[in-house]
Amino acid sequence: MVYGAVPTRDGEPILPRWWRTIDKWSLSAVLTLFGIGLLLGLAASPPLAERNGFAAFHYVQRQVFFGGLAISVMFAFTLMSPRSVRRLATIGFAFSIVGLVLLPFFGTDYGKGAVRWFSLGFGSIQPSEFLKPGFIVIAGWMIAASNEVAGPPGKTYSFLIAVFIMMLLALQPDFGQACLILFAWGVMYFVGGAPFTILAGIAGLAVIGGAFAYQNSEHFARRIDGFLSAEVDPNTQLGYAANAIREGGFFGVGVGEGSVKWSLPDAHTDFIIAVAAEEYGLILVLFIIFLYATIVLRSLFRLMRERDPYIRLAGTGLACTFAVQAMINVSVAVRLLPAKGMTLPFVSYGGSSLIASGIMVGMLLALTRVRPQGEIADHLIRSQR
Questions:
Q1: Structural domain count of the chain
Q2: Position 3 confidence tier, pLDDT thresholds 50, 70, 90
Q3: Domain that holds residue 305
Q4: What CA dihedral angle connects 13, 16, 21 and 24, to 10 degrees?
């Protein structure tokens, strides 16, 4: 034992050590979210499959496949050391950057007004989903290194990388993911000791960038105008979602009895929470929010006791980004935010989203595992003796 608290066990097999050190409550919450996603997929996706000429449970079967792959990837990452997580994050980040650069030339928008996907014939891939976990881990590593004696200017380098990524995302356009990247960097920069005035200046630049996008992007302006409109068109996605949430009430209209899934083209992805609210009511929505809060808060409490700055920063960035993505999806459905085209992690349908969520949470669970090197409280107590 190095600093106390957690004993080492020489020769202990990998799986027992993994089970002893993993956050079991967060792991259970993730698996429960995936199960809820399958349950809602059974309700939301058959109407879309019928419209597209597929078998009734075509999208459910695909969600089972991609979800199983995502869970497998998540478990694989939880077995890794923080150093291995950083190495794989660097490789994944490099491939994602190449994908973003090639999107304007080889990508497709699937009629949604934003070139975000590569069509593979049998499916599609969205590079920006895989970019987030890689960027967060690398930026956390850079910011942590900049705080070392004679360390590199990691804060500056990570900020320049964030700006470059945001420019690539703005070309699609995908301002929602761009805001997530800036948010993730800002959280890690703040936790790493940044002055509040600098963060306020960056927030001001983000507002200026949003105003510029509103003036120069019809796609962005249309969504903002729809959000700011005093009246919600009942024939829009926001209108259908608002009516479904209203109809669901506290207990819902009953399993399979909802009607919004027949009207919303994105009922199984961006607006899956509207299906949950209509058929199962506020109870299920609150339970879903509770599961996300469990993962995020338990991870943050564990990170508060971690003394490795790279693990603290990268883990905080992953946890907060995971939380904000879920919050944005739910907020759009209840019209607290303009439409973003952002999925609900582990619940919404989507191959790229599911697998990327598995990678992100797998990295987070790996970084929050209890390790024998001791926690920050042990180190502080030792230094005062």
A1: 1
A2: very low
A3: 26-383
A4: 150
